[in-house]
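Worked example 3. Consider a protein that binds carboxymethyl coenzyme *A.
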Amino acid sequence: MPETITITDDRTGKTVTVPIEGGVFPSSALRELDPNLYCYDPAYLSTASCKSEITYLDGGAGILRYRGYPIEQLAEKSTYLEVAYLLLHGELPTTAELEQWVFDVTHHTFIHENMRKRFVDGFHYDAHPMGMFVSALAALGTFYDDSKEIDDPEARRFQTLRLIAKAPTIAAMCYRFSVGLPFNQPDNDLSYPANFLNMMWKIGEYEVDPILERAMDVLFILHADHEQNCGTTAMRVIGSSQADPYSSAAGAASALYGPLHGGANEAVVRMLTEIGSIDQVPAFIESVKTGEDRLMGFGHRVYKSYDPRATIIKATADDVFTVTGKNPLLDIALALEEVALSDSYFVDRNLYPNVDFYSGLIYQAMGFPVDMFTVLFGIPRMSGWLAHWEESLNDSAQKISRPRQWYDGPDERDYVAITDR
Ligand code: CMC
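Given these inputs, the predicted complex is written out as structure tokens:
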């Protein structure tokens, strides 16, 4: 069978044959037929916007791999910082490389005092931490002279280190401000997840529980990348204009903020709280089927089977609950999942739990307020965003992102004076 596709323009009879590689054919074939012919593809359902070597996702089979390594193996054997290195460099680090990388990240965790005193302190007392996180990322870039030197690989390396190292510091700072607690400085003797938990929770004596430290690291690994999702696409699109990575990351974080994307973990816990008890589950399922409600944490543009991250998160939840006690919303979540997985509405549409269905329950059991959930997603996604940013800058096929449109508005008409309308 030839691995090609032939397209005929019936208006002119012109034909073009182009190769299919990896299930993709170049849309430039259309321009060969007619330079003014475009694909209409709202929400990019049929568009591959780039070539990427970072993350492989098979939505039908429920497979997720970073640089070829199955997510299950990384979640079991690796650490978030090692995974971040893998995403950015393409290979797992040697012992020496990992030591240097961990040292470098650990020694870039502090932020300029003005970020807290002038910038964060300017927010209203009940500002949403995710709104603060988004703005703080953009503001951070203004502290570095070299932030715009995106053509210099060494400058890019520094921005990458800074953003990965400072994301937890900014996140914890936003939380401590929102509850009126003094900010805890980073502690360079702690691991990446332990340092974050310490900055979040330390009041007087505080020691990070190793089970919670590991759970945080696993959650960071699971959220580190997910190929061309809405936030990562925003990162690439903004980066394509040669904006600095802080502004691009702020744009990516803004996309993540929405309830259909990273905001879903927050929406899941709000939904479970509203359902309130197991006996309300059937009524809620009915309201989803009539379109009145949406089952948050279910469904995915790419996964048409169980999200592999949800399986790992479910197991992580069991570990966390041994320390924190069971989240009372878990039983409602399990009942919802059981009903949904046997109901034809969900089965026919291939709607399964996604990464956000159980993650919020863990976060809540660990003491995080729901407002912080999407921030917890944004901290590790930073490494994925930056890996894609770096890849796109080195991709000679990329240019400034600039889709075309299908104009469907009025034809030319004359201006009408306001008195005549
Ligand atoms: N509850 C009820 N019905 C749903 C749901 C849901 N969660 N998700 C999809 N459907 C229905 C949808 O109404 C449509 O039905 P019909 O064919 O009758 O019109 C069908 O399933 C196909 O859905 P779609 O909206 O065309 O699918 P999509 O690929 O555009 O949307 C999604 C994907 C993730 C936005 C959507 O499934 C959703 O809104 N899920 C809830 C929010 C959520 O959990 N988001 C987190 C996604 S994973 C993490 C991340 O990306 O950050």
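Take a moment to read the result before moving on. The two ends are 63 Å apart (CA to CA). The mean pLDDT is 95.
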